[in-house]
Amino acid sequence: MKRTLVAATALCGLALATTACGGDTKTASDSGPAAGGQKLKGQTVTVAAVWTGVEQENFQKVLDGFTAKTGAKVAYVSTGDNFATVLGSKIEGGDSPDVAMVPQPGVLKEFAGKGWLQPLSPDVKGTAEKNYAKIWQTFGTVDGTYYGLYFKTSDKSTVWYSPQALETAGVQPPKTFAEMLDAARAVSDSGLPAFAVGGADGWTLTDWFENVYLSQAGPENYDKLTRHEIPWSDPTVVKALTTLSQLFGEDDLLAGGRKGALATSFPDSVAHVFGKSPKAGLVYEGDFVGGVISGDLGGKVGEDAKFFPFPSVDGGPAPVVGGGEAAVALKSGKNAKAAMELIAYLATPEAAGIWAKAGGFLSPNTKLDPASYADDTLRTAAKSLVDAGDTVRFDMSDQTPPAFGGTPGKGEWKILQDFLRDPSDPKATAAKLEAAAAKAYKG
């Protein structure tokens, strides 16, 4: 589920421009080669992704749309967060799905290097060129070959809050990290812990770090650290960890304290704020939080729940970190034709619109009508990505070798969980991160 290279240019592509971006000007060609009746009737295509719960339910609606259009049955398999290991085992064990929704560019690159991926067809590439900004095609390209079509994206720089909690504390949404700490203390003083942190899922902690680091250290250093051109023991890393320790080090600001945060999953962290018995006033994570609120929790995004952009740190620009899942076709799959047809369908505004209406989803498809989004809050999240232009960065840990940035209980996930448990020595944590990164990049 870890959901995010530089998202450049006009990302008109997050479906916010109007007629200049194509609006809802869907044509027969936009619908891709999957259009045209029940030509895949009797065939089955298998799909693997990280999604569970409400995200799985919403993706199933998209798959049902594919079935209605083509006649093909779709069997879905959830890998859980340990995507690379689970999918790799299936491939090597002869139980490969036909299509996989890869959540990390590092995994996409690794799988391409192992020869596991089928290059996307000219039809898929043509549809992507019509419907996507070029940068999203770049994200799915390895050594000049187009392997991955980005279907679902996310704005991972949104801090969600209960309007009632901030009102009770007498504070407004902050614009700087220092203001956010002050607001958190005010919420805590009003009788409710400020932040629910899903520390049991280590990927949430990498997202915290990346937002602080991007704003504080800047895009150039962010890119260098992503490529391991500067070590994780660099002073910029120590500084970002020190900044994070200002929040993690105040036990009263966290629901359940640090111990409780380490036992809290991402879904539970959202429920702690927007459930029936609130245990905190705010939770940081991506726009997909809205899908949990409106789905599992039955809340109303925009009323019961709002968000503010992740605030700037030490005078740097407010960070915008993005994520996403790319559809790839596996060579070891049993139905190559249906696999490519499904990916072609996912490149259409029709497919994107199904999940957009359900909530908890952003699309890079330029032909998707903004009215398709479930609420104004999601439109705002999409606009944030667009307005950031070439300052947007793809999630750093998703780009690193999976052994470092994408495996539960290992590498960055585990080290940052240890840091949450005891944030008193940022320099020592940075040294541990560098040791793990050096090993993973070398491997």
Descriptive report:
This protein starts with 5 loop residues before the first strand and ends with a helix. It has helices at residues 53-70, 83-92, 105-113, 122-131, 134-139, 163-169, 177-189, 202-217, 219-226, 235-248, 257-262, 266-274, 289-294, 336-346, 349-358, 376-388, 396-399, 402-405, 411-421, 426-442, and strands at residues 6-7, 44-49, 73-78, 99-102, 117-118, 141-142, 145-146, 149-155, 158-161, 282-284, 306-309, 321-330, 392-394. The longest helix has 18 residues, at 53-70. The strands form three sheets. Strands 1, 2, 3, 4, 5, 8, 12 and 13 form an eight-stranded mixed sheet that branches. By secondary structure, the chain is α+β, with helices and mostly antiparallel strands. It holds the Pfam family SBP_bac_1. Keywords: Signal, Transport.
* First-residue to last-residue Cα separation: 23 Å
List low-pLDDT spans: 1-36
Any guess at the CATH architecture of the largest domain? 3-Layer(aba) Sandwich
Task: Name the overall outline.
Answer: globular
Q: Structurally, how many domains make up the residues?
A: 2
Helix content: 40-55%
The overall pLDDT, averaged over residues, is 89
Assembly status: single chain
The main pleated sheet reads as:
8 strands, mixed
CATH superfamily of the largest domain: Periplasmic binding protein-like II
Total number of helices: 20
CATH class of the largest domain: Alpha Beta
CATH topology of the largest domain: D-Maltodextrin-Binding Protein, domain 2
**Portion in strands:** 5-15%
Could you tell me the number of beta strands?
13
- The radius of gyration computed from the alpha-carbon positions, rounded to a whole number of angstroms, is 21 Å
Question: In terms of structural class, how would the helical and strand content be classed?
Answer: alpha+beta
